[in-house]
Amino acid sequence: MKIGRVVGTVVCSVKDERLTGLKLLVVQELTIEQARTKTFHVAADTVQAGNGDLVLFAAGSSARQTEKTTGKAIDCAIIAIVDQVNLVQELA
Fold first, then answer.
1. What is the largest CA-CA distance in the chain?
2. Of the candidates 82, 62, 32, 14, which has an alpha carbon nearest to the alpha carbon of residue 44?
3. 44 is a domain residue
4. Tens digits of per-residue pLDDT, 40-83?
5. What CATH number is given to the structural domain containing 39?
6. Which of 16, 26, 69, 72 has the lowest CB atom count within 10 Å?
7. Euclidean distance between CA atoms 77 and 65, whole angstroms
8. How many domains does the chain have?
């Protein structure tokens, strides 16, 4: 799993019929300290995330392990909306 922030949406008027009903969101990958990286992903939303939400996302075959993404051509899925991140010690 990785942490990121939803920064946009992707709208597709023509797509594989198995993707019908899935909301596609643009997620900017973050460091654990929530600093922005230059990496972006298009992710299927399985938890009703929205713009600005801090989320956990899974990539690769793990992204197809949710009830909404099983058997679909998905490489990235938002699997949780993060309420809080607590680090036990300061990172070097």
1. 48
2. 62
3. yes
4. 999 999 999 999 999 999 999 999 999 899 989 999 999 999 99
5. 2.40.50.220
6. 16
7. 9
8. 1
Give 54-65 pLDDT, tens digit per residue. Answer: 999 999 999 999
Amino acid at 75: D
- Is-contact 58 1, C-beta < 8 A? yes
Rounded Cα–Cα distance for residues 52 and 68 (Å): 22
Where would I find the beta strands (DSSP E) of 1-92?
Answer: 2-10, 23-30, 36-45, 54-59, 76-81
Phi, psi at 39, each rounded to 5°: -100, 130
Determine the Cα–Cα distance for residues 72 and 87; give it in Å rounded to an integer: 35
Question: Does the residue 88 lie in any domain?
Answer: no
Structure tokens at 4: 């990121």
**pLDDT at residue 31 is higher than 90:** yes
What is the identity of the amino acid at 34?
Q
